[in-house]
Write a structure and sequence with these properties.
402 residues; alpha/beta; Protein-Tyrosine Phosphatase, Chain A; 2 domains; 15 helices; 39% helix; globular; ATP binding; acid-amino acid ligase activity; Mur_ligase_cen; ligase; ATP-binding
């Protein structure tokens, strides 16, 4: 009875919010529902036929989740997921509101959820995943977690309370706490350079052979070796960290089902990008390119994807940057000018750009006003780089949020 009430009230709250805030309401209704029926999420997951799969780590969660969900669906399985990448507790409850029935039950074979490290660690004991996919530990988001060691502790808790785990065996932050009998490993071939730079860890470095290995990277293509097979993909996800996300998804699907490898190759090659991860969206008659920048590493990668001729260009730093000093670790020297700098931390970002001799045309803190000013500009390749908070506000204002 509480579940029925929670679903009804949560959906009403979601409806009201979306009347007044286009594209909004993805998390708060989940907070309301969870306060009414705390067991709503666990009851929904138990209604799935083949259990819960979670994806967590510092980076790569959304891409890994998207690919894994697509692979399972391509094989004919019904999958419930949190499609808006709302990976905190409230967002997970909100996904039940959106896609569950009136009792909060879901018609699914698998539940595949992206988990924030902190919220996942708090939920894992009660939800007990069948499989945990752990991507990496980077030295980012230190304003949230203070030290990467705390991220390791949270991921270890997720690992400890899961039946099995898919682990990045190149990251010794993860390999130090795992049991070889409880993991399926993925990683990069030793020949692939440069390699991702994981959080510094002075402990031992256990060695595990990956079951799934990225063996070759080319321009818009890559090869992944699985037992008795070499898979080839045509994909834009050809950077080492993106290839690892794909390897994680393949390792997970091979643990969950018997894959049709030809279907795996076809499915991956046809995948669209996760929203804002090098997404092209039509906005007011223009094709606008969106690049999400979560930390110094992804900022640097996004900058490598554009040229000094990209025009017009907007870069936004939102309220998710609690400590803007990390902007000074990003090299913006390839840029000549930026048309609009936006977001709550726009002045800090503009200062960093100007110190690197980048001409800044306009500074606008409000995401909606910055978006309007940017879209009034003409140019052949409108491009936006933004952090997560600025991304959510901008996409919501432009009507791109679902």
């Amino acid at each position: 009875m509480l579940s029925i009430l929670a679903i009804a009230v949560g959906r009403i709250v979601r409806f009201i919010i979306r009347i007044f805030r286009r594209g909004g309401g993805s998390a708060f209704p989940g907070t309301v529902a969870s306060s009414i029926a705390p067991n709503l999420l666990s009851d929904a997951i138990r209604s799935a036929r083949h259990g819960l799969v979670v994806v967590s780590g510092s980076s790569g969660k959304s891409s890994t989740t998207q690919t894994l969900v697509a692979l399972l669906r391509a094989h004919g399985y019904k999958v419930f997921t949190n499609p808006s990448t709302a990976n905190i507790k409230q967002g997970l409850y909100a996904a039940i509101l959106q896609f569950g029935d009136y009792r909060g039950h879901i018609d699914a074979d698998f539940v595949v959820m992206e988990w924030d490290e902190g919220h996942g660690a708090a939920l894992v004991e009660s939800l007990h995943p069948r499989l945990a996919v752990l991507t990496n530990v980077y030295s980012d988001q230190l304003d949230r977690f203070v030290d990467p060691e705390l991220v390791v502790e949270k991921l270890k808790k997720i690992y400890d309370h899961s039946d099995h785990a898919v682990i990045n065996v190149d990251d010794k932050n993860l390999t130090q706490f795992v049991n070889p009998e409880k993991i399926t490993g993925f990683g990069l071939s030793p020949s692939i350079q440069p390699r991702p730079s994981y959080a510094i860890n002075f402990g031992p470095e256990p060695k595990f052979e990956p079951s799934v290995e990225v063996s070759k990277l080319g321009e818009k293509s890559l090869q992944v070796s699985v037992p008795a097979r070499l898979l080839s993909f045509e994909t834009k996800a050809d950077a080492p960290h993106q290839a690892l996300n794909l390897a994680a998804s393949i390792a997970a699907v091979s643990k969950l089902i018997e894959p049709d490898w030809d279907l795996v190759e076809k499915t991956v090659s046809n995948l669209p990008p996760v929203f804002a991860r090098d997404e092209i969206a039509s906005v007011r008659g223009k094709d606008v390119r969106f690049l999400l920048c979560l930390n110094p590493t992804s900022f640097t990668h996004s900058l490598s994807e554009i040229s000094d001729q990209t025009n017009p260009l907007m870069i936004m730093a939102g309220s998710d940057i609690s400590d803007p000093s990390w902007l000074w670790t990003v090299d913006f020297s390839k840029l000549k000018h930026v048309d609009v700098v936006g977001g709550k931390n726009a002045y800090d970002l503009a200062l960093r750009l100007m110190y690197q001799d980048v001409q800044v045309e306009r500074i606008i803190l409000e995401a909606d006003k910055a978006a309007d000013a940017f879209l009034e500009l003409s140019g052949p390749s409108p491009t936006v780089l933004f952090t997560a908070d600025a991304m959510r506000r901008t996409r919501r204002y432009l009507g791109l949020a679902k």
